[in-house]
Amino acid sequence: PSSLIWFRQDLRLADQPAVAAAAERGPTVGLYVLDDETPNDWSIGGAQRWWLHHSLEALGAELKKKGGTLLLRRGRSAEVVCAVMDELGAETVHAARHYEPWWRAAEAELGARLTLHEGDVLHEPEAFRNGSGGSFKIFGPYYRALSKDLPPPEPLPAPKRFNAPPELPRSDRLADWKLLPTRPNWATGFDVWSPGEAGAQDHLHRFAAEVETYAERRDLPSEVGTSNLSPHLHFGELSPRQLWHGLSDGADDKFRRELAWRDFSRHIILADPELGNREQRPLKLKHRRSDRDFAAWSRGRTGYPIVDAGMRQLWATGWMHNRVRLITASFLVKHLLLDWRLGAHWFWDTLVDADYANNSQNWQWIAGTGFDSQPFYRVMAPLLQSEKFAAADYIRRWVPELADLSDRDIHDPHARGLAPAGYPEPLIPHREARERALQAFRDARNR
Ligand code: FAD
Fold first, then answer.
1. Cβ(162)–Cβ(67) below 8 Å
2. Residues of the chain with CATH 3.40.50.620
3. Which of 5, 124, 231, 295 is spaced 20 to 30 A from 325 at the CA atom?
């Protein structure tokens, strides 16, 4: 009998126990289901549709080269997987495990027909329990526990050949899914990316040569100091184990710790599947509502150069530097007092690396509502951050109307009377925003 491989956020053939297990057993077919129903509010966002299109194209071509096939279908995952199994006469479907609540629901629905394999993490997140047998809520102790099991196992090679069954079920045509962007002025910088397993490997090799300077440069948005591997990791074109072992022994511990955050956020959503929707420690904050402010934030017209640069980088390239994600998210939550979920959903739709666990956890951290969170009353000062992390060139790149200002003036052109015509006034002055946020926090505590 044939086996089916159900691909989701694991669009690779190497270091894929699910793929290896299916290929060993005889005729094998791959399946990707475009499912906008099971995830509900978290169905795949706009920027990731672009990525997905190219990644599926690459995976399909690679499978074909090796004698295999990738079928494309649309609908509710569990139903479609069952239907294709019946058409194929397959007894088993193999898949890599994922931790998003909607994927767990679909896995549960498939029950005994599904064989799950590792592949998305350094180590399965349930393997780690704190002293009282519960899950960890704080990263430090989690990392100490994980470290005892590091390095992770060596990655597996990709199968050399696939056997196709004599008859194949029908497949949709990728072009008919219309995943590529249609909005004008959006995604103009997406050509920096090379989705797919081969692109991920090239990118890994490039980064391996630079990882030594990671700790020094990772906080500087003007430099390419981080790996930019996040979309490849999200789509599973590169496994965390391949990444771990692909870096030389001298690779920076700071980098490995960052990668462990990705595992940790999976550990967290297992314990708290509603992380993207519900506050872990509710603050009872009275959020403002302002379509005008949200529009200014999302399109990079707040009058705060570092915030505007970040939001425009996101819009153009589908990615934003981590330091600037912190600054822009904090600006939305504290300066504008808007609900963090609005920001999280905007990121979801515009990031090529949008990831339910990482995104939700980081937004709750910034909003002061996560277990492992900074306190709400710490209000980040965007203009000081911009100076401290030497963001002048980054601003020049993304807010070209400020490009002629000096390194000293560019962070806060309004204060120096140097803002060019057409560059927006600050939505609210920093000091006033800080006072308003602190007052809202005091009111929330008394509520
Ligand atoms: P590197 O610094 O090279 O790190 C390597 C990998 O480690 C990353 O690719 C990522 O998989 C993981 N990692 C690094 N930092 C974190 C972190 N803080 N939390 C969890 N994993 C981490 N990351 C996402 O992958 N998807 C998201 O949707 C996402 N949303 C975020 C929202 C906010 C408000 C903030 C502050 C951060 C968010 N992050 C998210 C975390 C982080 O910003 C990105 O992972 C990182 O910027 C990706 O760039 P990189 O691959 O160059 O990172």
1. yes
2. 1-118
3. 124
Q: What ipTM did this prediction achieve? A: 0.99
Q: Please check if 214 is assigned to a binding site.
A: yes
* Rounded distance from Cα 17 to ligand 1 centre (Å): 25
pTM score, two decimals? 0.98
Question: Beta-carbon neighbour count of residue 49 at 10 Å?
Answer: 18
Q: Each residue of 75-99: pLDDT tens digit?
A: 999 999 999 999 999 999 999 999 9
Is there a binding annotation on residue 228? yes
Note the pLDDT tens digit of each residue in 365-393: 999 999 888 888 899 999 999 999 999 99
Burial class from Cβ neighbours inside 10 Å (0-12, 13-18, 19+) for residue 39 reads: middle
**Location of structure tokens 């401290």:** 388
Count helices and strands in the chain by DSSP H and E runs:
18, 5
Any residues with Cβ below 6 Å from ligand 1, and which?
218, 226-230, 233-234, 258-259, 261-262, 265, 322, 325-326, 329, 347, 351, 353-355, 358-359, 362-363, 366
Q: 416, 387 in Cβ contact below 8 A?
A: no
Euclidean distance between CA atoms 43 and 97, whole angstroms? 18
Q: Secondary structure of the chain: what % helix, strand, coil (to 5)?
A: 50, 5, 45
Mean pLDDT of 145-166: 95
**CATH fold of 121-154+197-271:** 1.25.40
Pocket test for ligand 1, best of 242, 353, 356, 389 (most atoms within 8 A of CB): 353
User: What CATH number should be reported for the domain whose range is 1-118?
Assistant: 3.40.50.620
CATH of 291-446, one of 1.10.455.10, 2.60.15.10, 1.10.579.10, 2.30.42.10: 1.10.579.10
